[in-house]
Design brief:
Layout (H helix, E strand, L loop, with lengths): L2 H77 L6 H23 L4 H36 L12 H14 L9 H15 L4 H11 L16 H4 L1 H13 L10 H5 L1
């Protein structure tokens, strides 16, 4: 084989190799392009999942905080209802109760179920408070007014009939739930007489008190503060269980406690 033939053979081989290299380069390019697209798609998908998780986390945190604020506001309203004007008490309680119900309903959407169950337990505690809140406000307001009419000096040497009547009426109200049913009508007349003589209550407030006293259901929850403490009604325990359930969630952000924010 002469040199020209050898050159032709090598030229053909070189061309073949060049062609194969070109095809390989195209295939590599296509593979790299496809891989890059898959990576981009996976990255975008992961980013969307992360964004959804962050939105859900933010939604939950907002719902949890709103519910705690509404629950604490409702309980605070129950505690101070005696200081509200009598004609506004029912409306004040209704507004707080509706806000709490709305917050509890909104919390059910983002969940999770364990937190929702504890929230519903808190709502049930508040419902029990609500059942007697207005009546309690009537009784507590009357007790406060009678207490203010006690003798400001030495009670043992007090000669004021009004001061004595205020003291006796206050004592009767605190123990009203322990009286016998057949004795209560006569006692009711005597209570009315004492309060009128004390001058502690206007006629409208006296009428409200007598209306509650005629049906002394759960009187121990209406008259004495030590029997109406939050632990007895279960609110503090339910609240602590709710906040603990929130803390145990796997999300990095936790709902801020309104009481901590206030500090």
């Amino acid at each position: 084989m002469d040199s020209e033939q050898v050159y032709a053979v090598f030229s053909a081989a070189g061309a073949a190799l060049s062609g194969a290299a070109a095809v390989a380069a195209v295939m590599v390019s296509r593979w790299q392009s496809g891989f890059a697209r898959r990576v981009a798609l996976e990255t975008a998908r992961a980013q969307r999942v992360a964004e959804r998780e962050l939105r859900l986390e933010a939604q939950r945190s907002e719902a949890w905080t709103a519910f705690l604020c509404a629950a604490d506001a409702f309980v605070g309203a129950v505690w101070t209802l005696a200081d509200v004007a009598p004609e506004r008490r029912a409306e004040e309680l209704r507004v707080r109760s509706e806000a709490l119900t709305t917050a509890c309903s909104a919390l059910r959407v983002p969940g999770p179920d364990r937190v929702v169950r504890h929230a519903e337990a808190m709502r049930e505690c508040c419902a029990r408070m609500e059942r007697y809140a207005v009546q309690r406000a009537v009784v507590r307001s009357a007790l406060q007014a009678l207490l203010a009419k006690w003798c400001p000096g030495n009670a043992e040497h007090c000669e004021s009939d009004a001061h004595s009547c205020a003291f006796l009426a206050h004592d009767m109200i605190e123990g009203w739930g322990d009286r016998e049913d057949d004795e209560r009508p006569d006692d009711l007349d005597h209570l009315q007489f004492l309060i009128k003589e004390s001058g502690a209550l206007p006629d409208a407030d006296l009428a409200r008190l007598l209306a509650v006293a005629r049906s002394p259901v759960c009187w121990e929850l209406l008259a004495a503060d030590p029997r109406w403490l939050r632990p007895r009604t279960g609110y503090d325990e339910a609240r602590e269980a709710f906040t603990e359930a929130v803390r145990e969630q796997s999300f990095p952000a936790q709902v801020p406690d309104p009481a901590e924010l206030a500090q």
